[in-house]
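Board notes (copied after class):
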Amino acid sequence: MVSPELLTPYTVELAGIVRHLPRVEIAPSVVIAILNILGDTELTEAVAQALVERIPPEVDMLVTAEAKSIPLAYAMSVKSGLPYAVLRKSRKPYMTGAISTEVISITTDKPQTLWMDGRDIPRIREKKVLFVDDVISTGSTYQGAKKLIEKAGGQVIGAAAIMTEGDNPAWNHIIALGNLPLWLEKAE
């Protein structure tokens, strides 16, 4: 059981916008703050602009995984003029020539499959791609996306996220506006 104070909202300021994020116990004694931009146009627009200002000039395309980061990738695409593609978490009947890879996300705690529609393969081939996500927690979605992008003939030159999560030296290479702590409470 987690202490009640660990379940109070966690306050962040991102691109001048303040939000109070709910904290959720995702595993026994493991608490994370949940950033959910879906439906939050003000925050999505602000963080998209802040991230676009940090996109390396050599980037040709943005790629994201569904679902919470789709509005971010769209807003970044509009602001930067770069095209974007979405990796799906299930294969849809309209997807032809799709390719896939398996990932494990911290928020689902079970294996998921990422799918790239075959129609996106020629759009990504020979492009320098920036992976876009709302929060990078374990890096597994990023690694899965990287495999798919490379399989399609694209080159991943980095990742951008609103926030990273936890203390991971690899996050130093991520374009991010902030970092969310992980709260681990030891059993008594």
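Comment from the instructor: The chain has four helices and 13 strands. Residues 41-52 form the longest helix (12 residues).
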